[in-house]
Structure formats: structure tokens, C-alpha cells
Please model this.
Amino acid sequence: MPISVLAEGRGGDFDVRVGVPGTADPWEVFRHVRADPWLGARIGAQVGSILAEQHTRIGAVDVADWLPLRPSWPESGEWVRQRLPRVANDLALVAKAGVVFAMYEAVKLPEADRVLVHADVGFHNLAIDATSLAVRGLFDYDGAAWADRHHDFRYLLFDYDGDGVLEAAAAAYEPSVGCVISRARVALYNAACAISFLAHREGKLPEERCCGRTLTEDLRWTTHAIGRALALAPRGG
Model:
């Protein structure tokens, strides 16, 4: 029996076939998660299970001709290096951002880590029940790519100490998929994204919300993410 279309994008690039009741306020979910580590771990585990299914159901032959081999975000290092000094006047932070981006661009990706990635897995793209805060699904695959599985974990780290959401997601994911998620690579990708969002603020007022954050909030995320990425970076040759 065919499923009827409830709504369709103006350009026909998407349609809605099943409505999922839930909250549309990711910042409210974030506040709940930050205050309640148990809730964060529960959401993380549910996301990990969703990603395990997504990453194992689609093969290279299914996407070889139409999916890009890298996510569209973060932007390139050249793009970031041109804009970041015009947004952040902290020379030490800009220098560290340059080190992190060089590390990001130097990642050698094992082919075994290529999967169908959503590449924007965060509270803003999760269907979450408004009452129980249980995860009902993941939507908006506009940025999907055949790329490193670690990109789907990068927004499960936040700008505060504690990585319970990521750890719960990895704990649900790893035994199902049979691989280990590199915390260092996730932290590196998180930092590269944070830096890119900060550079994206060029021309914006400090108090203006760009992609949902003010300059102060973007600086806090970037500073925290850079510190974590550098602390977890492999040492030596």
C-alpha cells in the first residue's frame, strides 16, 4: 500500500510522508542534556543505534555515482584562514586553529571507514519526543556523503566538560558495527567544524545569532573544542 505524501518541498527535493510529533527546539534539548547526564547518555545510546543501522545498510555500490566523498562542512582550510583573523582578534586562538585545521586536512582516511554519513547529526536534526525526550528519528539528509563514519559523531561533543553523549553513542554503536570510534578523530572533526562556524561569522555583529550562536558562544565552543582536539591528538611520529 503506497504511503501518501503529506508535504513536499517547493523544488520537489524532499517530501514528508510520516509525521513524527516532537520538539523543534534543539537548544531546550541541549539545556536538558547538560543538566542531566543520564538523559544525555540515553539520547546518545539511541543516536548510536540509529547510526549503526544507517552505516551498515548502504554499500559503496549504492552511492558511488551520486554522493560526494567528503561532507560540505567544514569549509576548506584556505577559506577559514582568510576569514578567521577578521572575526577573532585572539592571535593565540587563531594560531591554534591553524594547527587544528592542518591536522584535519592531513587525516588519511581508511577506506573501511567510508559509510553513508548524514554529516549533521545534532539535536537540530533529531526528531525528539517533547515529553519523554526519546529520539524518534533522524532527518534532513541534504548534506549526506560517502565519507568517514566519524563525521556522524562530531556534534555529540559540546562546549563543556563531559562526553557522556558521545560515549553512550559509541557504546551502542561499536559492538553492532564491529569497529572502534576514534575519540581523537571525533574531537578533531568537532574542532574543525567549530572553527569553520566561527570564521563564518565574518560580517556579523557580535550579538547576532549566526547558525544559532552569538560571537561569545562561538568563541566558547571553538576554544573548548581546540583544546580538546589538541589534548587528544596522537603524539610523536
The mean pLDDT is 92. The chain has one domain: 22-232. Residues 22-232 form a domain with the Aminoglycoside 3'-phosphotransferase; Chain: A, domain 2 fold (CATH 3.90.1200.10).
